[in-house]
Amino acid sequence: MSLGATRFAKAEHVHGLQCGHAASIWSSIDSASQRYAPDRAVDIEQFDLDVTPDFKNRRVAGTATFTFRPILKPLGQLRLDAHDLEISNVTADGTGIAAWQNTDRALIVTFAEPIAEGGQAKLTVTYEAEPKKGLYFRTPEMGYDPGDTHIWTQGESIEARHWFPCFDAPNEFFTSTMTCRVPEPMVVLSNGSKISDSVNADSGLRVVKWSQDKPHVNYLITLVAGHFKRIEEKHGNLSMSFWTAPSDFANAANSFRYTKECMEYFEEEIGVPYPWAKYDQITVQDFHWGGMENTSQTTLNASTLFSSETENIRSSQGLMAHELAHQWFGDLVTCKDWSQLWLNEGFATYYTHLFAGHKDGINEMRYGLYRDRKSLTGRGGDTTAMVNRKYNSPEEMFRKYGFMSYSKGSWVLHMLRSQLGPELFRKSVKTYLERHKHGNVVTEDLRSIIEEISGQSFDRFFDQYVFHAHHPELKISYAWDEKTKLAKLSVKQEQKVDANVLLFHVRLPVRFTVDGQALDRSLHITKTEEDFYLRLAKAPSIVRIDPDVTLLAKLSFTPTTALLHAQLADESDALGRLQAVELMAKRKNKTTREKLKHALQNDPFYAVRLAASKALRGIGGDDAFAALTDSTDQPNAKVRQQVISDIATQYNPEALAALKQSLAGEKNPSIRARAIGGLTGHDDKAARALIDEALGSASFRHQLADAAVSALRKQDNPANLAKVRNALENDGTKFTTRGYANALGALGHLARNQKKKTPIRKFLVAHVNHPKRRVALAAIDALGRLGDPKALAVLDKFTGAAEDDPARKAAAQAIEKLRAARKPADDYKNLRKEVTSLKQSNSHLVKELGDLKKRFDAAIGKKKAEKK
Ligand SMILES: [Zn+2]
Predict the structure, then answer these.
(1) Most exposed of 640, 645, 661, 848 (fewest Cβ within 10 Å)?
(2) What pLDDT score was predicted for residue 703?
(3) Please, which residues bridge with residue 44 across strands?
């Protein structure tokens, strides 16, 4: 699964499900956490689901049939996960049923006679549901384009039970079929191969049946049905399709274009053929995640689609590669329980980096790993091991602990590959997949295969990085002794060592450049503090620590200015230049500014140019700023966007002029959006007109109007209220769900100091029951911001909603905000004015100080000259 931009989905975390049934024979699990794999009383061999969605009423009717055999002993009773399912009938072949009970969380079936161990039995459940999770409708009644009507489902981690009865844990493999009945013009997509597709003469409904004839687990079952258009491609005999809602189809090819190349690369690199009958990718609207790797069929968030005019700023490559890698890692082999999630997500993340390396070059791969490492080592206080059972719900392993499951997992694999070499690593991974295919894996399975193949012990490695928390924090200092020709490197481990975090044993690679020659050395770090002496022919011109980005550690090393400048000039070392630029950002002298400007305009690697732009913004002052405005002419759109974003943070006439100039010529909507964001704060009529113009302009996904709404909100002028409200009333359907929701938030914010709040309150109240949940939640939140006590009665209604209804939490927070807003709001307004005027006088002072310094320097220079 890929996280994507889904801040909202955080509100939907799984709450404690009371589940205290003593008779939980099948899976006596604590459904709230599923920290351990549940018992399996039976082996499910086949699961058949037959469903009919009711698009108008957003309900589903179905029959679920399980074919199974008791594993160890005769089975008298069976428990299935079933969350708020309206079960009408339960039947069993052979023995028959004595009774069944629906607890709203589980279905418990008591057989007339116990089913003998090893004996095959069949159980059929007939039910209906109005699912709150698991199956989601996108219909005209909810505000979606009628031509795009569809449903999508999401199993991972434990949502499937909301739309069909099941064994809802990853430690049971079975084959399955999916039959779905829909209006005749619709398409039905599911796991495996399509075995029939016909229109029933009696019902007039299209009946489509799919079969997944290779075993997989419950959370990977998928159903997408509705109006879709398709692009198809073949990889050998394998069919690969990309489907979107009709209104999204125009841009489908952009997101599909690297799938074939990635498939070819993964088959080669992994060494195991793609394991499923087809590979389809389908974009669905308002998906809760970035993507989901159901077997043979990936669901993608339609937000991944982009128009060609955004150039290289947007790409689906990473998301596509991540989900495709999962078809092996997660789908062919599946983590046994959620504590082992890194075996799914770490592999998917790492193979995305490997594909970037294959397709875009080694620097791109190292840059990706470097960024992941920066974010991992930038956070402090992680005291939880990557494999942990401390989570309260499986979803926490994706969100709260997601940085470990994804980035740290990927880094652990990268270290293993760096230590083993690509060949041994490939052989280990191939063996791991072949030995455990269509089965569960735990970390020890991977470790033992690597040891078996390499003959090396990896106990310490896994103990440090996987079963204990954190990573080494190494402070490194360097000195050269000309007399002895010795380079001295002092290395200190600075991480807090305790029961959760070990003192690490790692190899730290170091590269010296002497007379243009690279000399690689490796320091074996085992102590809290140690000095290493290395003999070299002469003083090195460059000293690089971990030059190839192969060690997960926080590395603190600040070379001398001369070493840094040499590093920045090294054409063979893109990552070295990038790090040099980042270290130079802390220096403020003229040479640094000039070198950064040179890098921004000339470095061959775009990441160095990005970093140079950020560094110049950080340094600030007239010269650094002038370097930015001199560098807006960037052929690479990512860099152009960065430079405009950095200029947009400044409040001076030159910045305003540069932004206006950009907007006059720039075609790329992502860059235009940044420029529009930068127009706020300038007291300028033309700037305000540009924002207004953006609000009414047409752009893909209404991106420019979104930028205008954010700008109007930031300007915090009550006159903007009418503009935002008009846009919502007249052009509401042009906004994405997210854009519309943000605009509601802007209304609440802008009206908070108004005397007459009634019209805005009424407008927001009209949205609190909106069928798009994100819009409803945004309206509730905006009522909190608005601060009109008359909204209390409406908000109060939601506090009685179900425990796991996100509206309940949103309403409680809004009420709290309303009650806290007793202070006169004018205080804040005055404070803002003061800050703005302080900012202005501060920049005057800085400029005056600069002038004084110049005059002073000139005077001193004159004096010195006089003395000679
Ligand atoms: Zn994933």
Answers:
(1) 848
(2) 97
(3) 68
165: CA distance to ligand 1 center in Å?
25
Q: How many angstroms is it from 1 CA to the middle of ligand 1? A: 3
Q: How far is the CA of 291 from the centre of ligand 1 (A)?
A: 7
Phi, psi of 830 (to 5 degrees): -60, -40
Interval 81-91 mean pLDDT = 97
**Residue of 12, 8, 2 whose CA lies nearest to 290:** 2
Residue type at 575?
L
Distance 348 CA to ligand 1 centre (A): 6
Confidence of residue 834 (pLDDT cuts 50, 70, 90): low
Q: Ligand 1 centre from 247 Cα, in Å?
A: 27
The residues pairing with 235 across neighbouring beta strands, listed in sequence order, are 238
Percent of the chain's residues with pLDDT above 90:
88
- Rounded CA-CA distance 87/61 in Å is 10
Question: First vs last Cα of the chain: how many Å apart?
Answer: 73
Instruction: Give residue 325 CA to ligand 1 midpoint distance, Å.
Output: 9
- pLDDT above 70: residue 343: yes
Extended strands (E) in 4-120: 42-54, 59-70, 75-81, 86-92, 97-102, 106-115
pLDDT attached to residue 831: 64
- Cβ-count burial 506-524 (b if 16+ within 10 Å, e if not): bebbbbbbeeeeeeeeebe
Residue 762 one-letter amino acid: K
Structure tokens at 438: 């269509």
Cis ω for the linkage preceding 393 (within 30 of 0): no
Residue 857 has pLDDT above 80, yes or no: no
Angle at CA 345, nearest 5°, toward 323 and 606?
A: 70
Confidence grade of residue 17 (pLDDT, cut at 50, 70, 90): very low
CA 264–ligand 1 middle distance (angstroms): 20
User: Tokens for 171?
Assistant: 């430690």
**How much distance in Å is there from the Cα of 396 to the middle of ligand 1?**
14
For 127-166, write each residue's pLDDT tens digit. 999 999 999 999 999 999 999 999 999 999 999 999 999 9
The CA 292 to ligand 1 mean position distance, Å, reads: 7
Residue 412 Cα to ligand 1 midpoint, Å, equals 16
How far away, in angstroms, is 262 Cα from ligand 1 center? Answer: 16
Burial class (CB in 10 A: 0-12, 13-18, 19+), 310: buried
**Ligand 1 mean position to 848 CA, how many Å?**
54
pTM above 0.85, yes or no: yes
Could you tell me the distance, in angstroms and rounded to a whole number, from the CA of residue 330 to the centre of ligand 1?
Answer: 8
Residue 864: which pLDDT band, with cuts at 50, 70 and 90? low
Q: Are 441 and 333 in contact (CB under 8 A)?
A: yes
Question: Is residue 387 classed exposed, middle or buried when 0-12, 13-18 and 19+ CB atoms within 10 A define those classes?
Answer: buried
Sheet arrangement for strand 506-514: 517-525, 506-514, 542-545
Residues whose beta carbons lie less than 5 angstroms from ion ligand 1:
1-2, 345, 348
Q: What is the pLDDT of residue 852?
A: 73
DSSP characters for 333-389? EEESSGGGTHHHHHHHHHHHHHHHHHHH-HHHHHHHHHHHHHHHHHS----S-SS--
Q: Which residues fall within 8 angstroms of residue 760, CB to CB, at 6 or more apart?
A: 721, 725, 747, 748, 751, 754, 786, 788
